[in-house]
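Quick board copy: two proteins, each given as sequence then tokens.
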Amino acid sequence: MQNQRRTTIDPQILAQAAEWYAILRKGQAHPAEQAEWKIWLTEHPDHQTAWARVEFHADRLKSLPPKAAYVALTAPDLQRRRAIKNLVLLGAVGLSSWQFSRSRYWQAWTADYHIAQGETKTITLSDGSTVMLDSGSALNVEFSMDVRRLQLVAGEIYIETAKDNIGWHRPLVVDTQDGRVRALGTRFSVNKQADYSQVAVYANSVEIQPTDPTASKQLLQAGQQTQFVSTRIDPAHSLKLDQPAWSQGVIVADNIPLSEFLLQLNRYRQGYVTCAPEIADLRIFGSFPLKDTDKILLNLQANLPVKLSSPFPYWVKILPR
């Protein structure tokens, strides 16, 4: 019981434990999922503590009002997992639903789809559209009689739209905190950064509407990209790629500083890479496959006046040579 009262567990670890509980609770997890859960459980003592707390609070589902318990336990698979995870994690963290639901972290972990660091995933929507999620992305999907809505909570998605296959001609939109992007028969990507959203169009066009109703809409054509906030849209500029580089498994560097390149690389790597300030402005060119990020670092060492240092596990520092 002492571990269950502990209040210093990282909320991210609690969220991971709640996610595993939602997966395993139905008793139909694949052997590979069960093995992965066991590995996670033994990786760190805090994982075991978090799991114990989640199990303890999961028992409280039995004391929910009948209607809430029914919704949590009998909904379709995706909705059921989401409901169970939300209810258990709220109890384990000990915050009010209003406090925690407003955090970006909570929104990402309770999204319909969320992708771990270093992974990508392609999903096919019920209308036939395909959505590819980049590393660390989180997405909600909500189809109604009037609209096909994607809510991008974090990260980046690349979308190849299909015609509405039920004949209702519902628009497909992507919403972020900054506004709405409406697809006009197209291939495009939306990237949610901390302070703005970014859109790139690879075929046809999209319409951007910031959250502020007084802000003007803007049509973005194929071969263009821009970024926007809730009150305005920046001028469009040209786009060189046919689709996002990450969707093809590479990072493309076109004369960018080393520091910026490493920010991108860190999104696809377990651990952290940094560089000394005196070499932060070294220019990087080329296309780098993301399959082996260690190989990317060795490539930098071989072609730049730098050397690699590992002060601690999972931390690589790039120094002048």
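And the next:
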Amino acid sequence: MLAPLHTSCSRQPQAMVGPISGLSNTRPLGLCVLCGLPAAGKSSLARALSHGTVWDCMHISYDDIILEEAFMSPVVIPCWKWHRQQLLTYIEHFLVVLKTGSSLCAPAERENTVWQSFVRTLEEQGFVSSDAPGPEASHLQLKPRTCGPLYILLDDNFYYQSMRYEVYQLARKYSLGFCQLFVDCPLESCLERNRHRDRPVAEGTILLMAKKIEIPNPEKNFWEKNSIVVRSEGPNWENNPGVNDLLQLALDDPVKEVQDNADEKEADRLMTAASVLHQADQALRKIISETMRTAKANAPAREMKALAQELSKLKSQLLEDLRHGTMLDQMSRCRSLEAQDIVTLFQQKKDRMVQEYLAHQC
């Protein structure tokens, strides 16, 4: 059953050579974002699309390509985000191959584990074949396939709109079709399904994500116009012609590439920055409130005002850096900032500040 939404770090891929006979560089291409909570049914929908549509579908499951260890790294910029950006770069690398009809070569700058997992995914689905044995093969030859439309299904939570916007920008860069399928499933069902997965996600993570997730909003964001909600309930819910209608609509009306339009580019930047700024502001306000409640048990009441002022000053400084695009050097490797980056940095600075403050008061 479908429910319509409200109406109204890496270098660029290097040049590749070696055209493949029989591959048309005018083949219609589309990017489809599958978003929703863990265990909502995104992978089931992707499998249904791969086997039940008139198009070729390439299923890119972030969970299968980015290893679990990437989510455990205690760095300022979460390692998982860097891996996500690496994967998006490899997808762009493959798009260039599809557009030019060339061979797929390993980028000079790459994270080998993610690259090899990405290549293995393409091989398993029959989109490439290696020209040499072993994981170190650097050239992969495209297998001849039909010249009909191809959809790349990006299967991840994509709980912030800024995550999805990066995919939209990629579609715009290469004038591709772009659409979003938000797989909606009751939280209780997601938690139950998750318990039976081979690699279950921590329930606390799902609960937190459920509070933060941003459903596509076509009324607010023009770039989300090709979006629908798919209810993952009932038998055979994955096979619904409304999804195919949306995919066809997106192919028929690909995103237009921006041609040196400084005003539109600046509008894009401001829109993304405003969204991240709002998210960060809300999150930091909540952290300060919780910190003050905890500090009451350890600090005299007369000192609470001073601590609150220091935390507020820290928040304002970080948000001002974000507003003017002058974040710290350790964040410069990232393609774009997200609210969680600011929250992570604030948490670290806040913890040191509170510890020093309380020690000084003692």
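Board note added afterward: Strands lie at 2-4, 29-35, 56-61, 104-105, 128-130, 139-142, 150-155, 177-184, 227-231.
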